[in-house]
């Protein structure tokens, strides 16, 4: 690891969506590639401009080969709150670091990027001309330059109050762009096999990045559905597998989720989804299995577990059970019948998931999952806990005015022992989340109240 004094400063231009997910993604990817997240500014907040210290350009490039939260990265040559400050900063930048990119045999171009303001062509040219003091000796090439330099101006976040002058101005050498195009190329709209709850492509890649998925990892999804999370992991070179209690979904049977299609076709399945993107070689298998009763032998099999458990809204929370567990008054089935489907409390589901991850993840492996919460009652103490797992990040995505889901990332830091299986019952985190077993009822009660409120206001 390079010492902090030898680190280079880079400017990240971030996308303005999924704001809470951006910092954990960048931290996870830097950690994956041997870097370390070192703060270069007080807070990153909602700003699209982040200054980072990174040990090498190789790590910066590797970061951009994975991130879907960042648009571009630049080697930062200068920064100021006014043009004069920027020019002073550039004059203080070591000339020996500039020379390899400015010599007489090189070609270059300078681009102007503004956030929250549009400049005229004349204004852009004026800003480029003001940089004549830099020792450019090469030729300008607007079509295929060897080196691209950018002036980036930040006019704040409020589109209704755009200042005359920028809050910050940056100048840097463009290094690489992020993987934003994956969101479109892997869009669920274009996917061969989808379900009611197929995960948005952008969030799937964010989850894989939070999990630090890498080549030759084995990644598992215990609530696999139509396999959207497997696709993102396979794209990064991991071998993927999963389970689900729904036989029809795994086998592509029954009613289709796609509009204007009544029944699923014979080739609609998870393997076909991976084949669509040229990722079939990474597909291990999927099994019809109950997450509450894992069918795996004891051992550590997985480098990452990434999943989106059902919340009981669009997909029911179910587990298999025996005849003894069926409530009285329901007619018994023949003894030879496959175990019946029973309700599966959310709190039980998540503690089963944490126990399973603690048992089957390799040391340092990560669990990434969605936790639904009723916002008025949510506190951080409600996030399920396990002695073998360390909480890495906790990000919110709003679902409605009163509900949200939290993307929880945990890392295995201790080998599992038998006594760890029920340790959550002694934890202060166990009882608070039990209140979310009624998440479905709270979700729909809020929907009903909102509809009634809208109807009442429309009649007034």
Automatic annotation (TrEMBL):
This is tRNA (guanine(10)-N(2))-methyltransferase TRMT11. It comes from the Eukaryota. Keywords: Cytoplasm, Methyltransferase, RNA-binding, S-adenosyl-L-methionine, Transferase, tRNA processing, tRNA-binding. Residues 9-180 form the tRNA (guanine(10)-N(2))-methyltransferase TRMT11 N-terminal domain. InterPro entries: DNA_methylase_N6_adenine_CS (IPR002052), RlmKL-like_Mtase (IPR000241), SAM-dependent_MTases_sf (IPR029063), TRMT11 (IPR016691), TRMT11_N (IPR059073). It catalyses: guanosine(10) in tRNA + S-adenosyl-L-methionine = N(2)-methylguanosine(10) in tRNA + S-adenosyl-L-homocysteine + H(+). Catalytic subunit of the TRMT11-TRM112 methyltransferase complex, that specifically mediates the S-adenosyl-L-methionine-dependent N(2)-methylation of guanosine nucleotide at position 10 (m2G10) in tRNAs. This is one of the major tRNA (guanine-N(2))-methyltransferases. Part of the heterodimeric TRMT11-TRM112 methyltransferase complex; this complex forms an active tRNA methyltransferase, where TRMT112 acts as an activator of the catalytic subunit TRMT11. Pfam families: Tmrp11_N (PF25904), UPF0020 (PF01170). Belongs to the class I-like SAM-binding methyltransferase superfamily. TRM11 methyltransferase family. Its EC number is 2.1.1.214. It is found in: Cytoplasm. Residues 190-320 form the Ribosomal RNA large subunit methyltransferase K/L-like methyltransferase domain.
């Amino acid at each position: 690891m390079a010492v902090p004094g030898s680190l280079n400063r880079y400017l990240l231009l971030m996308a303005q969506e999924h704001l809470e997910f951006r910092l954990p993604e960048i931290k996870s990817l830097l950690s994956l590639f041997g870097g370390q997240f070192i703060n270069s500014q007080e807070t990153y907040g909602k700003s699209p401009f982040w200054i980072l210290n990174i040990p090498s350009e190789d790590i910066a490039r590797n970061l951009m080969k994975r991130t879907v939260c960042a648009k571009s990265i630049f080697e930062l040559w200068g920064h100021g709150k006014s043009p004069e400050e920027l020019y002073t900063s550039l004059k203080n930048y070591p000339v020996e670091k500039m020379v390899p990119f400015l010599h007489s045999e090189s070609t270059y171009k300078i681009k102007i990027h503004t956030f929250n303001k549009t400049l005229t062509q004349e204004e852009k040219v004026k800003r480029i001309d003001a940089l004549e003091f830099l020792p450019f000796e090469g030729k300008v090439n607007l079509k295929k330059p060897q080196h691209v330099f950018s002036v980036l101006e930040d006019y704040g976040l409020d589109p209704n109050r755009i200042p005359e002058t920028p809050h910050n101005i940056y100048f840097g050498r463009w290094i690489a762009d992020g993987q934003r195009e994956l969101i479109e190329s892997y869009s669920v709209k274009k996917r061969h096999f989808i379900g009611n709850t197929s995960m948005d492509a952008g969030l799937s890649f964010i989850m894989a990045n939070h999990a630090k998925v890498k080549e030759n990892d084995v990644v598992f999804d215990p609530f696999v559905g139509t396999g959207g999370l497997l696709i993102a992991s396979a794209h990064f070179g991991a071998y993927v597998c999963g389970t689900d209690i729904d036989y029809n979904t795994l086998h592509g049977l029954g009613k289709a989720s796609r509009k204007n299609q009544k029944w699923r076709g014979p080739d609609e399945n998870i393997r076909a989804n991976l084949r669509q993107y040229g990722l079939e070689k990474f597909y291990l298998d999927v099994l019809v299995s109950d997450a509450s009763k894992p069918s795996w032998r004891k051992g550590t099999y997985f480098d990452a577990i990434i999943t989106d458990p059902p919340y009981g809204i669009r997909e029911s929370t179910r587990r298999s059970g025996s005849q003894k567990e069926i409530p009285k008054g329901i007619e018994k089935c023949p003894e030879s019948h496959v175990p019946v489907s029973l309700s599966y409390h959310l709190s039980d589901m998540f503690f089963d998931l944490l126990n399973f991850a603690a048992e089957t993840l390799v040391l340092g492996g990560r669990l990434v999952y969605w936790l639904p919460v009723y916002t008025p009652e949510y506190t951080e103490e409600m996030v399920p806990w396990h002695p073998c797992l360390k909480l890495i990040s906790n990000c919110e995505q709003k679902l409605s005015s009163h509900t949200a889901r939290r993307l929880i990332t945990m890392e295995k830091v201790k080998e599992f022992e038998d006594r760890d299986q029920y340790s959550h019952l002694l934890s202060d985190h166990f009882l608070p989340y039990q209140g979310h077993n009624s998440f479905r009822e709270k979700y729909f009660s809020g929907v009903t109240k909102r509809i009634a409120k809208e109807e009442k206001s429309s009649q007034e």
